[in-house]
Amino acid sequence: MNSVKALAESPNLSYIPSIYINSANSTEPPTSDLQDAIPTIDFSLLTSDNPKLRSQVIQELDFACKDWGFFQVINHGVPESLMNMVIEKSKEFFDLRDEEKKEFEENGVLDQL
To answer: What are the residue ranges in the chain where pLDDT is below 50?
Structure first.
């Protein structure tokens, strides 16, 4: 399989290849505790006139990056129309055949680093 999408669309899929299984967490049941919720960062607070609020959101951002590796951003100022367009174009790209996606590959980018 070249991609998760190809795997998911496999008509004869009878098992999940081990490369896609996270055995460290596979037996843990999902939790609904608030402390386990994906961190939400209010970006508007980064420009607050209140230094305590700015400091608090920076600490929340630090925690989210170190402990989670990702987070949800709110009040970022990106128009909803732009976000919807990015989602739509992403879906269009991932629906392309592998051969069509290869046209978008960058060659030699890592060689320049």
So the answer is: 26-32, 34
CB atoms within 10 A of CB 38: 9
Amino acid 40 reads: T
Q: Using CA atoms, how far apart are residues 17 and 10, in angstroms rounded to an integer?
A: 12
3 state DSSP class of 25? coil
How far apart are alpha carbons 43 and 78 in whole angstroms? 11
Q: What is the pTM assigned to this prediction?
A: 0.50
pLDDT in tens, 88-105: 999 999 999 988 988 888
Please tell me the distance from the alpha carbon of residue 112 to that of residue 110, in angstroms, as a whole number: 5
